[in-house]
UniProtKB/TrEMBL annotation:
Protein's pathway: Bacterial outer membrane biogenesis; LPS lipid A biosynthesis
Protein name, UniProt field: UDP-3-O-acylglucosamine N-acyltransferase
Catalytic activity, reaction form: a UDP-3-O-[(3R)-3-hydroxyacyl]-alpha-D-glucosamine + a (3R)-hydroxyacyl-[ACP] = a UDP-2-N,3-O-bis[(3R)-3-hydroxyacyl]-alpha-D-glucosamine + holo-[ACP] + H(+)
Function of the molecule: Catalyzes the N-acylation of UDP-3-O-acylglucosamine using 3-hydroxyacyl-ACP as the acyl donor. Is involved in the biosynthesis of lipid A, a phosphorylated glycolipid that anchors the lipopolysaccharide to the outer membrane of the cell.
InterPro entries: Hexapep, LpxD, Trimer_LpxA-like_sf, UDP_GlcNAc_AcTrfase_non-rep
GO molecular function per UniProt: N-acyltransferase activity; UDP-3-O-[(3R)-3-hydroxyacyl]-glucosamine N-acyltransferase activity
Domain UDP-3-O-[3-hydroxymyristoyl] glucosamine N-acyltransferase non-repeat region stretches: 20-85
EC number: 2.3.1.191
A Pfam family matched in the record: Hexapep
């Protein structure tokens, strides 16, 4: 595909020879003739002088290089689109394996793939153009929307609702019981609280590998449209996550907490139960959210607090050994 065609397709400004033929995408230090590379991090700019790529995708014009440039407002977004263009995902051809176990009351849409040893329960509906990979368990009374991909060995419990264009990666469990128990001081026993709710996952959500999403005790656990959940995330019962959030690896969200829209929880963030995190909030890695956060902005630390405040406190903590030595000298004098 010619560079000028790519510029037109993705709304980029072209600098240099538009007739350059592009056949793929590669990293700066590995790209060769016919490939376009990308610069989304200024730290890698020094490698451009030695790259063998035929063109570069960037956010602003770079005067000191000779290869053609595609300049766009959101280079990382265009990079993602280029990858999808040149390296489309290869999914299995539509077919239903004779080794799959499918209930007679299940409804499978058109052009679906159901792999070996998949199980689909009673009164479950699978939309058109879905891919259910080998070893997937889908319980009774579930709904899975059009174009959804469920990768191998995912377990989807009864009553789960999954929207259109969702991707669920291997080993994930959706709809298992929430961690609900009642302790009787009188009897000195722990009683399980029956978990009778469900999980609802809206359109275009992606869920990484080995993540767990518990069903509601009553009502539902909700994952909002377009939200992206990483590997190894735990989402408790009756949690509500808004639209277009990023939930990064090893985050744990306790039950009945509400997360707003456009929220990012970085790796290993812990969120207490029965609180709210408002819209447009980012929380730094390993932070602990112990109470509701309502104002948009960036937070960090334990307990989570506004980022600038946390930085000031951290700077003081880092100086404690120095301050301690000064105090010791003062006490001796």
């Amino acid at each position: 595909m010619k560079l000028r065609e790519l510029a037109e397709k993705f709304g980029c400004r072209l600098v240099g020879n538009g007739e350059t033929e592009i056949t793929g995408v590669a990293e700066i230090h590995r790209a060769g003739p016919g490939q376009i590379t990308f610069l989304t991090n200024p730290r890698y700019k020094k490698f451009l002088k030695g790259t063998k790529a035929s063109a570069v995708l960037t956010g602003s014009e770079i005067k000191e290089i000779k290869i053609p440039q595609l300049i766009c407002e959101e280079p990382y977004v265009v990079f993602a689109k280029l990858l999808a263009l040149f390296y489309p995902e290869k999914l299995p051809e539509p077919q239903i394996s004779p080794k799959a176990s499918i209930s007679k009351t299940a409804n499978i849409g058109n052009n679906c793939y159901v792999g070996d040893f998949a199980f689909i329960g009673e009164n479950t509906t699978i939309g058109d153009n879905c891919f259910i990979f080998p070893g997937v368990y889908v319980g009774n009374n579930c709904q899975i929307g059009k174009g959804t991909v469920i990768f191998p060995n995912v377990s989807i419990y009864d009553g789960t609702v999954i929207g259109r264009g969702v991707r669920v990666h291997s080993g994930t469990v959706i709809g298992s019981d929430g961690f609900g128990y009642a302790f009787s001081k009188k009897e000195m026993k722990i009683y399980k609280v029956p978990q009778r709710g469900r999980v609802v996952i809206e359109d275009f959500v992606e869920i990484g590998a080995n993540t767990t999403i518990d069903r509601g005790t009553i009502g539902e656990t909700l994952i909002g449209e377009g939200t992206k959940i990483d590997n190894l995330v735990q989402i408790g019962h009756n949690v509500k996550i808004g639209k277009y959030c990023f939930i990064v690896s090893q985050v744990g969200i306790s039950g009945s907490t509400k997360i707003g829209n456009f929220v990012t929880l970085a790796g290993k963030v812990g969120v207490a139960g029965h609180i709210e995190v408002g819209d447009n909030i980012t929380v730094g890695a390993k932070s602990g959210i112990t109470k509701s956060l309502k104002e948009p902005g960036t937070y960090a630390g334990f307990p989570a607090r506004p980022y600038r405040e946390w930085r000031k406190i951290q700077a003081l903590i880092d100086r404690l050994p120095e301050i301690y030595e000064k105090v010791k000298r003062l006490l001796k004098s």
